[in-house]
Amino acid sequence: MAEESLRHSTYKDLSAFLRGVSTGWDPRSPLAAKAGIVLCWAGAHLGTRLGPDTWKELQGLLRALLGTEDLGQSLCLAEKHVLSALVAKGFPKGSSEDPTLGLIGLRGPGREVRQRLAEGGKQSSQVAFKILGRRLHAIDRATGQEGFDNRSEYIRAVALGQNRYHGALVKGAATLFWARSHVGDEIGPAEWLRLDGLLREHASTYLFPSRCLPEISPNTISETSSGISVRDPEIPGTAPGGQSLWQAGAHLLASSPEAISAETGLPLS
């Protein structure tokens, strides 16, 4: 997974990549972190009708971060890494729920994650690299501050995006699943309400809190289901939930909504 993030970065080798992310110099290099741009994009356009041009905008944003041309491939990569980071975090404190929260399907990006989960991490390998002086002190300080037992555990977590908040990863997984399911489609009220249903079910996040939605079926997340079904849907003119998507996306990107908006031109909701 780290090598896959490396291939979609500007680093020449894995040692340079690990030094960059572990010292805090470049925290957005992991693919799980770069996935945050999809949440920011969704937050910027939440509740509006989207056509092909808006999908091209997302394609350009992901191309700048991942170096990939195909939007579907970019979304699959991002979703796989967010799911992997979510699985690696394990069970939330006091929760008996599956750590995947039902967001891993039998096909698509979740298939590889499910296989790795079944193998119990047997594909993991060791990587050694040199780091001295102030950079080593920075890693030691961050290791203690973030509650990791040792440097290796900390470096592994930040390199794979596993040090992100659980809630942000869940929102990322749900939003990426939604975007991948609708890529290239015209997005209207029904599609936004499906995203709202996904986030209500899995992240207790209400994008349109003023609207009462019907009960969500247990099969909301599947490779064949598109989510909740509504008749003649209408959505409010303003979407307060956009701020929640912005905040989660900015957290994954280790930045702020304001900085990302200025960098990309995405309007803050």
- How many strand elements? 0
Oligomeric organization of the protein chains: single chain
Shape: globular
Report Rg: 18 Å
User: What is the share of helical residues?
Assistant: 40-55%
Q: How many strands, which pairing sense, and closed or not: the largest β-sheet?
A: none
Please state the structural category.
mainly alpha
**For the residues shown, what is the average pLDDT?**
80
Cα end-to-end separation: 33 Å
Order of helices and strands: HHHHHHHHHHHHH
Number of helices: 13
| β-strand amount | under 5%
Low-pLDDT segments, ≥5 res: 91-96, 212-233, 235-239
Protein architecture, described:
There is one protein chain. With 269 residues, this protein is an all-alpha fold. It has 13 helices and no strands. The model is unreliable at 91-96, 212-233 and 235-239 (pLDDT under 50).
Walk me through the topology.
Blueprint: H1 2-7, H2 14-22, H3 31-34, H4 36-45, H5 52-66, H6 71-89, H7 109-119, H8 133-145, H9 151-159, H10 166-182, H11 189-203, H12 242-252, H13 257-264
Condensed summary:
The chain has 269 residues and is mostly helical. It has helices at residues 2-7, 14-22, 31-34, 36-45, 52-66, 71-89, 109-119, 133-145, 151-159, 166-182, 189-203, 242-252, 257-264.
